[in-house]
Amino acid sequence: MSIVAHVERFVAMGTRVELHVFGGEFADAVIAARRAIEEVDDALTIHRPSPTTAVNDALLAGRGVAIDDPVLIEALIAIQDVHALTDGLFDPAIDQRFGGAGWGDVEFDPRTARIAAKRPLALDFGGFGKGFALDRACAALRDAGVVSACLSAGESSLAVIGEHPLGGGWPFAIPHPSIDGAVLIELDLIDEALSISTTVGAGTHAPERAAMVRPSDCATVTAARCAVAVDRSGGRAEALSTALLVADDAGARRLVEGAPTRRFLYDLSQEAAPTVDVARMHAA
């Protein structure tokens, strides 16, 4: 029996996005999912004028501002949650260019959608935005009745709806970022999202920005590491993989202990095995 597949490929958020939707007549749903991702790109980008750059202009000038963009408001509410979830290790406001200012200096009221900061800073949704966009796309697909789909934003962020169209979990092999043919781990996903963060490769060309800086001491993470996180939410998965990447040993252990079969940190300077693994914790 053949399986109907709807495939959409496009560029958004600075990367290649692919939507693979299986079963039924879901052409309109695929268009809605693409629109959801493009709306996040338009709202959160810092590479062209956007609601986020308007907020950043105000925060850098020492002014508070009321936000009227619903996507940005939703993202900031989610940021509050993941900042707490990661013990502050995911911080979209940390930036060495601004003297170590961070999310702790941000005052955001979800009821009024007003944001201000105690000192000049800017927001950077790298390490969160792609996963958040996939969440919104998945929501659009589920609303349309989709029960099987695989969405990806680049090679580091993906989300799946339901089971694989042939049954069972969606199988993924996470490649070693610097050794051809080597695999770090194999995972099966059902109704989950996955994020990979690494200090090795093309995604490390702006080390002063949030996704490469440890909030506790504002130090750039330079060790060869790779973090993998799986969660029901793409935004949370991205925040968790970012947090694992910048965490010190104690912080990484706390995060991994929260979901030891869904959070992994690899030391790429040594063997391709988790540096923080509950089964090996006492030997690490």
TrEMBL record:
Cofactor(s) this protein cannot do without: Mg(2+)
UniProt GO molecular function: metal ion binding; transferase activity
Assigned keywords, A-Z: FAD, Flavoprotein, Magnesium, Metal-binding, Transferase
Catalytic activity: L-threonyl-[protein] + FAD = FMN-L-threonyl-[protein] + AMP + H(+)
Enzyme class per UniProt: transferase
Its EC number(s): 2.7.1.180
Designated name of the protein: FAD:protein FMN transferase
